[in-house]
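Ticket #4471: structure export looks truncated?
Reporter: QA, pipeline team
Priority: medium

Steps to reproduce: submit the single chain below to the structure queue and open the exported record.
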Amino acid sequence: MEEELKCPVCGSLFREPIILPCSHNVCLPCARTIAVQTPDGEQHLPPPLLHSRGSGAAGGDHADKLSLYSETDSGYGSYTPSLKSPNGVRVLPAVPAPPGSSAAAARGAACSSLASASSSSITCPQCHRSASLDHRGLRGFRRNRLLEAIVQRSQQGRGAAQGASAAAAVAVCQLCDRTPPEPAATLCEQCDVLYCAACQLKCHPSRGPFAKHRLVPPAGGSCKSPGAPGAGAAAGGAARKYPTCPDHEMENYSMYCVSCRAPVCYLCLEEGRHGKHEVKPLGAMWKQHKMVWDQINHCTLKLRQSTGLMEYCLEVIKENDPSGFLQISDALIKRVQVSQEQWVKGALEPKVSAEFELTLDSEPLLQAIHQLDFIQMKLAWFTFDPNSGHRDIILSNDNQTATCSSYDERVVLGTAAFSKGVHYWELHVDRYDNHPDPAFGVARASVVKDMMLGKDDKAWAMYVDNNRSWFMHCSSHTNRTEGGVCKGATVGVLLDLDEHTLTFFINGQQQGPTAFSHVDGVFMPALSLNRNVQVTLHTGLEVPTNLGRPKLSGN
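Actual output as written to the record:
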């Protein structure tokens, strides 16, 4: 996934990433180096303008709006003179101010040149699409806070892993009397004991019964003690032993039998069953079959890219930031679709001769890519929001279970907000004492939170006891329906913003008719309850296709 977190310009982890109109990301500092001004006509901008990319509070704003110039009006700069970033993207080198000129004079020249310019633009370093900048410059592009959070979490995880590996890499002597023990210098493979240099000389000399023991470094590799038998041979490296023919043990393989697809020696050709077979030199066949590495590398690259994309998608979903997710969800959907098309349309075509075929089974990967359909917000994962709930609300189980410390009804909202699509979630009643009236439904963010859900005009709810239920909005009770809840019951909420309806279910059976129609706007999942009730939220559910028919409502 690390490649997903690197800027295409500098090749480092993103810093202050911004989202370009093409949905690609780039560091804000890097964007300043690839932005282009399109001047009127073909006139080049003066050198002081190029110097305006320098630091300073006053100059930074102009550096956002303008960093380079173009020789045409197309918005694609010539980037001349230019350097190349680590990823091959051309950037403009820093140009010193003319002798005798001050930074203020340079900024003044930049301002005057900017005022006379017709437009400024930036070209995406990945897809090479150009986008014009308005009066806000680069600050007009949205900051990708979600990507920034994932980069920060990745850096923290990497630091913790490095610290753990560094701690685990230090092996200590198991026989030392010192405190702390000395670092281990050798490991005896026969004794399975770690020794420092001093303890090895004292407790495990290279003579007598220990002379045939093999000493290696703690991390592996040959580490024969000086004077031990075979130490010189170990230091010089063992001679390579070539495989021999099993039928003629003294002969090395020298030819390759094409008919049997096996290496053979020359005696096999003269005396054995390969005498009349087609054979080729072993070296030539080895070089021909080494072409498999090209295919392996190709497949590995595609696997790494697709795996990194899936890991990145999962990290995006972990972020509890609906607005940040919606900023980039469309781009992620497109990237997943493109990745799937690349695999299907030839990413796995064989690139070696028919004599050596390598086929990679792509079915598991394609299935994993198909499973990423949840990115399209067909399914939504969310929890109760500890920041928006009433102070008497008590959350647990990673904010998925809610109860209350008060005998009065208190409201808590979910962390998701919906304005389109079809969404379904369920609430399991974990505890139900003394016949309370919990209310389930949706609400605006500004709903009143110290009374039952549905009593104001900001909530649409179904409240229910152990025998019956009612729909409520603006304190208006409608559609009394027989059938209530108890411990272990499940209440389902179906919000269909395509049809603009809200429907409720109890234990898989629709409770009454469609509760509310003409539902339009932005809604958040909502719940009100008191201390006699505890419920657990279940999200990311598909809309059930086997929901029961509605119960008939009463008066």
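Status: closed, not a bug. The export was complete when the record was re-opened. Leaving a note from the reviewer for reference: The radius of gyration is 35 Å.
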